[in-house]
Write a structure and sequence with these properties.
single chain; 15 helices
Length: 391
């Protein structure tokens, strides 16, 4: 981090990171891990505080909330204190943090379900004159519920400052009428997964052919991500591109019956495979290395961690013009941008990508664009908001 952020190292600080972390899984947990590694490497004393209970099981649609990694193999030790349904744990968490006397607390926020617990902790910590900042991955959820705006406002006003990761999130915060100091940066590239393996080796391990034209839909499968739109584009795409292969890799939060039936009805079994499971970190490089292009047909979005994984592995993308996706993927420079909910436009972009040989041009554009997404900008924004030197 020091080299990327620039400047001589300052005195070590005591920092608390609060949010998803091992043993919990997902993109925000990876974000926490990356921050822990960077800040620790810069010489700071970093404590990660995470959940004792993140979601109650009846509210979690997936198979498990946890990584399949033993604690003794975890990238770092986390302190599991927060029970989102138990206010007594909120008080204990705030007391634990206050006893550490940190120079800065940084909280990860992404949905209103956590607003009550996080706001309570933030206000109690700030009562001890400890600054609290929030990194906002999302403010208003993709699937909305009554009270979302009030809950998010309740938490945001409990913080000293806010970092937003896309124009879409910034607009949501301003629409809430929140007056806290705010910094807007781009979501940094996820670079925790190591270098890309060779394409031929990755394809062999995934059972894909050397000459296949491979599309990758990656990550948790939710309705707002538009997998159904991508599937509806595939009959026409397969007719034009006989070697096309769509790999759908990720755990589904919704039943897959309709998707499987669609593939069967349209005789697309040779063109579409479903790896419907949580993809562990060690398997991620193979999926991106094997792909020619990553497809994100989202109906709604703020920013996307998947896009930043694609940038790390230098893979072009085809995305829809929603939220912050088009900000990250400039049209005809790092990928193609198409209207949301339009399988014909999506299919045409896929066919164009292969038939007009865009892969090399867009890959070069990805290499250039990814230079903008270093982690140093995040730490600089946190410094400006808190006055605490992180370099």
């Amino acid at each position: 981090m020091s080299a990327e952020a620039g400047g001589p190292p300052g005195p070590a600080k005591r920092i608390v990171l609060m949010g998803p972390a091992h043993p919990y899984r997902g993109g925000i947990a990876h974000f926490t891990e990356k921050m822990y590694r960077d800040l620790s490497a810069a010489g700071h004393d970093v404590t990660v505080v995470t959940f004792r209970r993140q979601y109650p099981s009846f509210l979690f649609p997936g198979k498990t909330q946890f990584e399949d990694v033993p604690d003794d193999q975890a990238p770092f030790a986390s302190v599991r204190l927060i029970d989102t349904l138990n206010p007594l744990s909120w008080r204990r968490t705030a007391s634990f943090v206050a006893e550490l006397q940190p120079d800065l607390v940084i909280m990860a926020y992404w949905m209103p379900f956590f607003a009550a617990s996080f706001a309570s902790i933030a206000r109690a910590v700030r009562a001890h004159r400890i600054p609290v900042l929030a990194i906002l991955h999302n403010v208003i959820p993709h699937e909305r519920h009554p009270g979302d705006s009030w809950l998010s406002r309740h938490f945001l006003t409990a913080c000293d400052g806010l970092v937003v990761l896309s124009d879409a999130v910034e607009q949501d915060v301003r629409a809430l009428g929140v007056g806290q100091p705010m910094e807007r940066i781009d979501h940094p590239v996820y670079d925790l997964f190591g270098p890309a393996p060779g394409r031929s080796d990755a394809r062999r391990r995934l059972g894909l052919g050397a000459d296949d034209q491979v599309l990758l839909f990656f990550g948790f499968i939710r309705k707002y991500k538009g997998l159904d739109v991508l599937l509806r584009s595939m009959p026409a795409v397969a007719e034009r591109l006989p070697a096309v292969r769509l790999v759908v890799a990720g755990e589904s939060y919704d039943p897959m019956t309709e998707a499987v039936d669609f593939v069967r009805q349209h005789r697309l079994e040779a063109h579409i495979r479903f790896d419907v499971r949580y993809i562990p970190g060690e398997a991620v490089p193979d999926y991106f290395a094997a792909a020619d292009v990553v497809v994100q047909p989202y109906r709604t979005a703020t920013q996307s961690g998947v896009a930043q994984i694609a940038y790390h592995f230098e893979r072009p993308l085809i995305v829809t013009d929603v939220g912050g996706l088009a900000e990250v993927v400039p049209h005809e420079r790092a990928g193609f941008v198409v209207p949301p909910g339009d399988p014909d436009a999506l299919g045409a972009a896929i066919v164009r990508f292969f038939q007009e040989d865009w892969a090399d041009r867009l890959t070069a554009g990805v290499r250039e664009e990814k230079k903008k997404y270093g982690w140093g900008r995040l730490y600089e924004a946190l410094e400006r908001l808190s006055g605490v030197s992180l370099r």
